[in-house]
Amino acid sequence: MNRRQALGILGLATTVGLVGCTADDVERAAKAAEAAKDYVPTFFTPEEWRTVGVLADIVIPKDDRSGSATDAGVPAFIDFMMGERTESGEQLRAGLTWLDTESQKRFTSAFATLTAEQQLAIVNDIAWPRKAPAGMEDGVEFFNRFRNLCASGFWSSRMGVEDLGYRGNVANASWEGCPEPQLRKLGVSYS
To answer: Are 125 and 136 in contact (CB under 8 A)?
Structure first.
């Protein structure tokens, strides 16, 4: 299992605990992400929206199998989810503020305007909790939350489902029933 597949499985599993959302919330957010080309953010400010897009593509970049997080509409998914869960949204907003403050401190510019190398210098300090420098706890917490939202958004999108190779319910033309040893183990039979 590669990094992308692991994120996919973990992302969907953690969304409920992360922002307290239901399966219906995830489905509605995925539909909002489907319409991402025409999406106008309702939660994020324009500056935050730009940062969300840049950071989402750092978390899930385009590769030879599929597009990036923004290609899959992940920023729209996150914006929708944060609009639905305002407490989580405010926590995420505080994390985006932390990210820009750190960017200003290190490079005198907002995160979204930094070079890719500068952005990765910050992300690498907060992406690995056990390796994070002292004083980066708020950044680590924010990035873990953001990464989980990206994974949830990506792998609940059409692109993410295709990336996983999920086929859904597919008819099995050769189904011959449950094997006899398992029927005996369960104490049931077809008669």
So the answer is: yes
DSSP codes joined into one string, the chain: --HHHHHHHHHHHHHHHHH---HHHHHHHHHHHHTGGG---SSS-HHHHHHHHHHHHHHS---SSS--TTTTTHHHHHHHHHHH-HHHHHHHHHHHHHHHHHHHHHHSS-GGGS-HHHHHHHHHHHS-GGGPPTT-HHHHHHHHHHHHHHHHHHHTSHHHHHHHT---S---TT---S-HHHHHHHT----
With b for 16 or more beta-carbon neighbours within 10 A and e for fewer, the 127-146 pattern comes to: beeeebeeebebbbbbbbbb
Q: Which of 114, 113, 110, 83 is nearest to 99 (CA)?
A: 110
User: pLDDT tens-digit profile of 29-70?
Assistant: 556 556 556 789 999 999 999 999 999 999 999 999 899 999
Q: What angle do CA 144, 68, 167 make, to 5 degrees?
A: 95
Contact predicate 146/95, CB 8 Å: yes
